Protein 1
Amino acid sequence: MTTSSSMCSFRESALQAFDNACSAFAEKENMFQVATNTGINTTLLRNKLNPSQPHRLTVEDLILITKESNNYCIVNSLLLRLDMVGAKLDLQSSEETLVKRALENSMFAGDLSRLALENAGETRLSRRKRNELLERAHQSVSNLVLLMNDLENKTSGVAPFLSMATDFVITNGAPGLV
């Protein structure tokens, strides 16, 4: 009986997270433009994103609207229910210095800290604040993945290691040599 109860509550919370993500997507995006560019009927797309309607998004619809809008909130909500986190990577981004990536990480951490402090006394977050926090957190995760990728690329030989050491010395000075 306990297993049945917990499965039911899991389904409820998963469905609620998905519905919230669909609502957030519909609020943020220009639905007419997304529907037109993906070839989905505008009214049907609005209905599929509305939790009170019987229509549901198909996997193909989800992929189309996500790629078109570059808004991953629905996909992220599904991954979170699977205890996973997704990170969107900018495949056109160039390899940056480790210092720049680390500073960007500090910037994202600072934004998250600021938002957390602004809402510290709140017992509940508004949907807008929650979505803003999630967006910043996902940006931070993406930056960390790029940082890890840059680290792997820079440490695959002697020359990259020397480049990384030079970055460190330029940034921090030469400890013990002064």
Protein 2
Amino acid sequence: MFKQNRLTLKEAQKGFAIFQSIPVRYMEADFNNVLKLSKHSKMYAYDAYFLDCALRRKAPLLTLDRTMKAAAQKLKIETLEV
């Protein structure tokens, strides 16, 4: 972000403050399902973890990643963008 002058330090600090205000709940993944999702969606297991969590929690997925969004939509996971 700084390397390409996309944000000022002040903007980055404001973004980090907003990020810290988001409540986060850690979930243990169903790694067998994560691996299946990873293979089926042709994506990293790390990314498939988020799909697994969204599926099990019946929660929408917030992403700007086009590959992740397409995989989520195929799985009928609601996607959100800002």
Protein 3
Amino acid sequence: MQRPLQIVIRDMPPSEAVETHIREKVDKLESFYPHIVGCRVTVEMAGKHKHQGKEFNVRLDITVPGSELAINRDRHEDLYVALRDAFDAAKRQLEDYGRRQRGDTKIHESPSHGRIARLFPDDSCGFIETPDGRELYFSRDNVMHPDFDRLAVGDEVQFLEEAAAEGMQAKRVSVGKHHYPG
């Protein structure tokens, strides 16, 4: 970094362990994205919540060539979890910023379309038939909208195909009007 790391701790006693942890996290960000110009990490206690006790806020202000990234993670009762979440978000923002700098674009999968072929409510799963006649497994956890219990055989759905240990499966299943050729 061109500028020294700034660590600000508010409304709580200073802690060498917390500062060391922050320095390690910033070092990892720098090894991931070496063009960081400056970084300011602010940690503060958000006050006492009636039921959970202390809660922490973490804010990162990261200066990179031509821009500044701000990451704010509010109110987590575990300081180290709040720091982890903030630095994970910072890494994602730095990834996106690096892609934009290189002119790379993030490619989003386009959803596939099909119809609910079979449902097994007792097992919380079902199968989607694709326009080319394949059947893809999905579970209750893979249904986005509406709830699994509101699905019916014949519903037109969109989904993402994903490889799993048992073969291709449908993820992020949602019902809607789609152009299903069949």
Protein 4
Amino acid sequence: MVFDQDGTLVQTEKLKALSYAQAALELCPDDVSEDEVVAAFADVVGRSRREVAVFLMQRFGLEDAARALIPELKVSTPWQAFVQLRVRYYAAMLDDPEVLRRNQWPHNVELLKEAQSTGCKTGLATMSTCAQTHVVLEALGLADAFDFVASQDDVEHGKPDPEIYQLVAHQLAMPAGQCLVIEDSPSGVKAALAAGMWCIVVTTPLTRSAIHSERLIEDRWIVDDPGTLMDVVRRMVTERAAN
């Protein structure tokens, strides 16, 4: 069983959205609101930093303000300057373990522990950096919960490219067709399916609308009510085993 992290084990996608919003407000305080940026972030949740930054800069006209900070931040492009601003805000949030514990998704963490208890191999496939991933897992008490952890530092291409899920399957020595992915975002679902894996998507307020509108996966494998997650997982495992 392979888990996404951000938005799946912990609501870091919400924290990331807020960090991008705070960075945007620093760049153009009079032309953008926090709520607007958070809402727009939902359109690119799960994608790489570059993709998110470019999208938000274009949506809210932030490029010129970001370009002015290139010399100060010692980067080469406006999107990198925007990301550096955003990382400062996000790092401050991650520095408080209690913030992370308050924002974990208990239903998905419970599923992870259930998988461990049955002897199932477990993997993590996250587009966070290795350092950020370590901080989150330590705060949640999950530092030793996975047989293999893959972060954005380990791949050339981010989700929706299947590379990170292919890497996890290879390291776990498991055929893709015997891996079940737990995701929350459209880009993550696309990556899992492209890797040839089973996928159950547990939606969040940031991803629910896009998951249903894009129709990437059968409705029966979409979990909007966390209370049904265990039943959906058992149903999928039973069905696939029978086939």
